[in-house]
Design a protein that fits this description.
Layout: H1 6-14, H2 27-50, H3 59-73, H4 76-82, H5 86-106, H6 112-138, H7 144-147, H8 156-169, H9 175-191, H10 194-211, H11 215-242, H12 244-254, H13 266-282, H14 286-291, H15 315-320, H16 330-343, H17 345-367, H18 374-390, H19 402-429, H20 445-448
Helix pairs in contact: 1-2, 1-6, 2-5, 3-5, 3-16, 3-17, 5-19, 8-9, 8-10, 8-18, 10-11, 10-18, 13-16, 17-18, 17-19, 18-19
Length: about 450
C-alpha cells in the first residue's frame, strides 16, 4: 500500500479494454489499437514490478506461471523456424502476452484494499466496453447480418459470470447489476449467436453447482433460477415482437441445417473445416507436431468439407480463403501454433487452475462463508470459468484486450487460492487460538448498493 502510483498503473492496465472494438481495417484503426496497447503493457509490467511477493511456495502457482510463459516465450522457436510474417505474429501474440503479463501482475498477495481497486477498474472497464462496443457496432447500421458481428464485447461472458456470482451464489441484487445483466441479454439476442446463449446457460449451471452444496440448497437455487429464466424469457419475447428482423434471423439460424441439402449447419461446417486444416498442418511432420506452426501462421478451410459448403461459397473463393488470426477454437489453435511442447501447456494449466479453484471455493464457502476474502475470490473464479465457456464459440482471449481481464482473473484465483489455503491450514492447526480475521476488501460497485446477503 506504500506505492501511491499503483492505482494509476491499475487503470492504465485495465482501461484499454473499454475501447476494444471491431473496426474496419484501416491505417487509423490500426494506429489507434497500437496506441491503446502501450498503456496496457506499461501498466502490467509496472504492477508486476511493484507487487508484493509470496513468502511460501505453491505448486499450483508455479505450474501455471511456467506453463503460461513457456507458451509465450517459446513461441519464438516456431516463429524462427517457420518465418511467419512478423507483423501478423506480433498481432496474434499480443493477447497471449497481455494474458501472461496480467497474470503475473495479479498473482501476488495483494492487500484486500488493493484487490478492491483492481475490481473497481475491472468492473467499470467491462461495463464501458459493453456499452461502447454495442454503440460502435450499431453505428455500422443495418442489416442485422452486418451489425451482429460488431456488438459483442470480448469479455461479456466473464461479466455475466461475475453478475451470476452476485445473484445466485451471494444473493445480492442492485438496480445497476440487474440492468447490466439485462443489457448483456439484449446484446445476445441482437447478435443472434447460439454459443453465447449456451455460455450463459452453462455459467448459470456453474453458479448453481457452487451455491448448492446439498440437495435442499439445489432445489431452492433451482426455483430462483427458474423464476429468473421466466422473467428473461418474457423480456426476450417482448423484444422479439418489437424487432421482427431479430426473430426472423434467429429462425434462420436455428433451422439453418434443415435449409441445406446436406442437413448440416453451415457455421458448424466452417468451424470444422478450419479446425481440420489446422490439425492436418500441425500433424504433417514431426517438427510441426512438437513445435507447432507459430502464432500468425496461415491456415485455410479443409477441402474435405467443400461439398457441404458449395451452396455458401463457390470453389474458386473457397481456395482463396487465407487466415492468420488466432483460430475460433482456443484448444486446437494452441496445438497448431505451439505444438506439443509450447502449445498445450497453457490450456492444460488453465483447466487445472479452473478445476482446483472451483472446488476449493465451493468447499470453503460451506466451511467459512463469512471469510472477507471469499467474495472477491468467488468473483475471480466465476470470471475465470468464463474462459472455457467462451471457447465454445471462439477464442476467449479475443483479438486484443480480453487477455487483460482473464489474465487478472486467473492471477487472482491462483493467488487467493494460495492465501486462503495457507490461512485455513494454519487455523486448523491452531484451533484453540481465536482466528485473526483479515480486513474486509474495499467495497466494489457490485457491493456498494447491493442488498446484504441473508443470514
Amino acid at each position: 500500500m506504500r506505492n501511491r502510483t499503483a492505482v494509476l498503473w491499475i487503470w492504465m492496465c485495465v482501461l484499454p479494454l473499454a475501447w476494444d472494438f471491431k473496426a474496419p481495417d484501416s491505417q487509423t484503426s490500426h494506429l489507434l489499437q497500437w496506441l491503446l496497447v502501450l498503456p496496457a503493457l506499461a501498466g502490467a509490467v509496472a504492477l508486476s514490478m511493484i507487487g508484493p511477493r509470496f513468502t511460501h511456495p505453491s505448486l499450483l502457482r508455479r505450474i501455471v506461471s511456467v506453463a503460461l510463459w513457456l507458451s509465450v516465450v517459446g513461441s519464438i522457436v516456431p516463429q524462427s523456424i517457420q518465418g511467419n510474417d512478423v507483423a501478423n505474429y506480433l498481432r496474434v501474440l499480443l493477447p497471449f502476452l497481455l494474458f501472461a503479463l496480467c497474470f503475473t501482475a495479479a498473482c501476488r498477495p495483494w492487500s484486500p484494499i488493493r484487490v478492491g481497486q483492481f475490481e473497481n477498474a475491472m468492473w467499470y472497464a467491462n461495463v464501458i466496453c459493453l456499452v461502447f462496443t454495442l454503440g460502435f457496432g450499431l453505428t455500422v447500421g443495418w442489416p442485422l447480418a452486418d451489425v451482429r458481428y460488431r456488438i459483442v464485447s470480448p469479455t461479456m461472458l466473464g461479466l455475466q459470470g461475475v453478475l451470476l456470482h452476485q445473484f445466485i451464489a451471494m444473493r445480492r441484487y442492485s438496480l445497476t447489476t440487474v440492468l447490466v445483466f439485462l443489457a448483456t441479454l439484449v446484446v445476445e439476442l441482437l447478435s443472434v449467436t447460439r454459443s453465447l446463449l449456451l455460455g450463459t446457460a452453462l455459467m448459470a449451471l456453474f453458479a448453481m453447482w457452487i451455491a448448492a452444496p446439498t440437495l435442499g440448497h439445489l432445489m431452492r437455487v433451482s426455483l430462483r433460477l427458474i423464476g429468473a429464466v421466466v422473467c428473461m424469457a418474457a423480456i426476450a419475447g417482448a423484444g422479439m415482437l418489437l424487432l421482427p428482423q431479430v426473430t426472423d434471423h434467429w429462425t434462420q439460424r436455428l433451422f439453418a441445417a434443415k435449409a441445406t441439402p446436406t442437413d448440416r449447419d453451415p457455421t458448424t461446417i466452417t468451424r470444422l473445416a478450419e479446425l481440420r486444416d489446422q490439425y492436418d498442418q500441425v500433424t504433417s511432420s514431426t517438427t510441426t507436431l512438437l513445435l507447432g506452426e507459430g502464432y500468425g501462421h496461415d491456415y485455410r478451410y479443409s477441402p474435405i468439407y467443400l461439398p457441404d459448403l458449395r451452396n455458401q461459397v463457390n470453389e474458386r473463393d473457397f481456395y482463396r480463403i487465407r487466415e492468420w488470426v488466432a483460430g475460433h477454437n482456443f484448444w486446437v489453435y494452441q496445438l497448431f501454433s505451439g505444438g506439443l511442447v509450447f502449445g498445450l501447456a497453457m490450456p492444460a494449466a488453465m483447466l487445472l487452475a479452473v478445476v482446483k479453484v472451483a472446488f476449493a471455493y465451493r468447499r470453503w464457502r460451506r466451511l467459512a462463508p463469512r471469510e472477507p476474502m471469499l467474495a472477491p475470490f468467488g468473483r475471480a473464479v466465476f470470471m475465470l470459468a468464463a474462459v472455457p465457456v467462451t471457447s465454445i464459440g471462439g477464442n476467449p482471449l479475443g483479438a486484443r484486450y480480453a487477455g487483460v481481464i482473464y489474465g487478472i482473473a486467473l492471477g487472482f484465483s491462483v493467488a487467493m487460492y494460495v492465501q486462503l489455503r495457507f490461512r485455513f491450514r494454519v487455523l486448523a492447526r491452531r484451533r484453540h487460538v481465536a482466528p485473526v480475521v483479515a480486513p474486509a476488501p474495499m467495497p466494489t460497485p457490485l457491493e456498494t448498493f447491493a442488498t446484504p446477503e441473508p443470514r
